[in-house]
Specification:
The chain has 4 helices and no strands. It has 125 residues and is mainly α. The relative contact order is 0.20.
Amino acid sequence: MLKKGSKINSILTGSCPRCQKESMYVDPNLLHFKNLLKMNECCSHCGLKYQIEPSFFYGAMYVSYGLNVAIGIAAFIISFLVLHLSLKISFVVIIASIIILFPLVLRWARNIYINMFVSYRPDLK
């Protein structure tokens, strides 16, 4: 599932979508909120410029919205339908899960968005 060359590998690890040799982010730790979205200018291995055009990652907001909706639906199904919690508690669980997963969603949205436009090239050794 996470073998080199797959989009899933690049999305989950935050590696360069073209060569998958290094991380796109300056700081790989999701808990350093100051550096959460700071990205390297380009890949030092293949030279891919991550900011393909000005304001390129604004499109990642739509991906982030979809991920947050999926998290909210999953939290509701688990809390209300599986665990049989009240509707108010289920609402609190939805909000809490979205807040807790916020840093992960931000990075995954960017990773998914750039992987929609850049493909892996195995010839880059």
